[in-house]
Prior knowledge:
59% of the residues lie in helices and 3% in strands. A hairpin with a 3-residue loop joins strand 1 and strand 2 (190-193). It has helices spanning 2-22, 72-100, 103-116, 118-127, 131-146, 155-158, 169-175, 194-204, 214-230, 235-242, 246-263; strands spanning 183-186, 190-193. It is globular, with a radius of gyration of 18 Å.
Amino acid sequence: MGWQRGSWMKWMLMGAVGAMVFSGLGNGIFSSGDRRAPVASTAWAKTSTQEDETYLEDPLAEKTVTVADPLQPINRAFFHFNDKLYFWVLKPTATVYKTLIPTGVRLCVRNAFENLLAPVRIVNNLLQLKFQRSAVELSRFALNSTLGVAGMFDPAEKEFGLKPYDEDFGQTLGHYGVGNGIFVLWPVFGPSTLRDTVGIAGDYLVDPLNYLPWTDYGIMQGTKIVNKTSLSIGQYEDFKASAMDPYVSMRDAYVNYRHKQVQK
């Protein structure tokens, strides 16, 4: 059942990408126009070890990376949908969860889910020929899965000084010169690009959660999303309040942050 669901999702994602490409919307995927100096900071940056304090870029700050957005009317509709989903469903659920579950426990849950994504980081570091970093990620996984009690704690960094090297397949494609293509905002999943959408499909194959039975998968993903949201309540609200056009600010912040990740 897990394999069938994994195959179904893989082909669904590939089909969506293929439809965009063959309709002519994917022109310029190999463009190098976005390979400029990285710009720091967005809502998608890594968080601290305390309550998630994801730093956000000043929406008025100058951007150095742009991306084609021919699907903007559709993207804006999905942005509105995701916005309502956050305020009507996700935020209320996460607020109750936050009230019931202590911060320390929620941080441990977040760490455990991050630890489960180690295969994605290990494989993509290897694909980029970053062998030392891949070895560090493998060591981190072994240490945190054992001494760190299934990844709930991070003795690999705190005791052994092994810092994580986050890489995904979208970054791997960017590492080898694949351009963003066009900007895509997916319902539920949020901001992406044509390149990163292909990257999601690639990472799906090595993410162990995707091979769980449907019921277990739903429980794990639901817990992961609600737990993560509970650690960052208020950030999205502040981001919207400070942006002249939240959609444009989110798009530019995402693209610049992903550019920075590729360049590191």
